[in-house]
Amino acid sequence: MGTSSEINFFFSICPDFCCLLSDDGTLIQVNKVWEEKFLYPIAHFEGRKFTDFMTPEDAQVVMDRYIKRISGGPSNGSICKHFDSNGKMYWIEWLFRYPWLATNYLLATKKQITAAKRATASTKAATTNIAPWILPEASG
């Protein structure tokens, strides 16, 4: 990924949230998915810190991982909550990817995982409620 045309092409075909971030976490460029999912115009995001759209406790965790990544370290995905313009909450997983060649910008992607989080919570709740009848009795 080196030229702005390559980045623009990637942004136009990627179904996930994509952005370029400066070393201080400022959103330099976002793709159309941001506007479609969060119901704000692209201009609402660009020029602001990516952590501005998270809860304070999520923002600190995600920013710590971002700083680790731009310092050359590995970075696992960071899961946080985002809210659209109607106040609807989404679970989002951030992945900090590759530096954009010849700049100090980092390509980041994020995907909505709200349905997966809800399914996991439902499965856990169902398993907790059913487990006493399914598990064999402990021998004593």
List the defining traits of the structure above.
38% helix; 140 residues; 4 helices; alpha+beta; 5-stranded antiparallel beta sheet; Beta-Lactamase; 24% strand; disordered C terminus
Distance between the termini: 63 Å
Instruction: Work out the radius of gyration.
Output: 19 Å
What's the CATH superfamily, by name?
PAS domain
Number of helices: 4
Mean pLDDT: 76
Strand content: 15-25%
Tell me the CATH topology: Beta-Lactamase
CATH architecture: 2-Layer Sandwich
pLDDT below 50 for ≥5 consecutive residues: which ranges? 125-140
Shape: globular
Instruction: Please give the domain count.
Output: 1
Q: What's the order of the H and E elements?
A: HEEHHEEEH
Sheet of most strands = 5 strands, antiparallel
DSSP strand count:
5
- Helix percent reads 25-40%
Structural class: alpha+beta
Strand order of the largest sheet: 2-1-5-4-3
Assigned CATH class: Alpha Beta
